[in-house]
Amino acid sequence: MINPKEITILYVDDEEANLFLFDVNFGSRYPVFTASSGGEALSVLEANSDEIIVVISDMKMPGMNGIEFIKEARNKYSNIVYFILTGYASNDEIEDALENKIIYQWFTKPFNMKEVEEAIQNALMELQ
To answer: CB count, 10 Å around CB of 84?
Structure first.
């Protein structure tokens, strides 16, 4: 098992309440950055790409959805493990992202902390 303090997460969501809840739930175990849009998340990655190894992004956001953001981020930061979080069921875009290994896994809102932690650990163990 990888030490949680060595796993820095970027969480992207356009809803402030969700950013707050994620930080409350995960911030005591992991270093966490947050961003409220895909554009802001790209800036956070630019400034902290040597630290961030996991990105969890909401799917439905204005301007750039989660998959669009992740595709752009992956072009520059391919060593990061990416996940999608959605309040809706899976769709063709998410399934395509899974098949093409753009994302490692997707979760539904409200997220299950244990499920998210296990997925992060599994993804990082596979990369080692």
So the answer is: 27
Q: In what order do the strands lie in the sheet with 52-58?
A: 32-35, 8-12, 52-58, 81-86, 105-108
**Residue owning tokens 């080692």:** 128
The CA-atom distances, in angstroms, between 38 and each of 5, 79, 82, 115 are 25, 18, 13, 24
124 contacts 2 by C-beta, under 8 angstroms: yes
The Cα–Cα gap between 73 and 26 comes to 22
Beta strands in 7-128 (DSSP E): 8-12, 32-35, 52-58, 81-86, 105-108
Report pLDDT digits (tens) over 40-82: 999 999 999 999 999 999 999 999 999 999 999 999 999 999 9
**Residue labelled with tokens 């875009």:** 93
Q: Are 62 and 14 in contact (CB under 8 A)?
A: yes
65 token code pair: 């959805």
What does each C-alpha distance from 111 to 5, 29, 40, 92 come to in angstroms? Answer: 21, 16, 22, 21
State the Cα–Cα distance between residues 17 and 116, nearest whole angstrom: 18
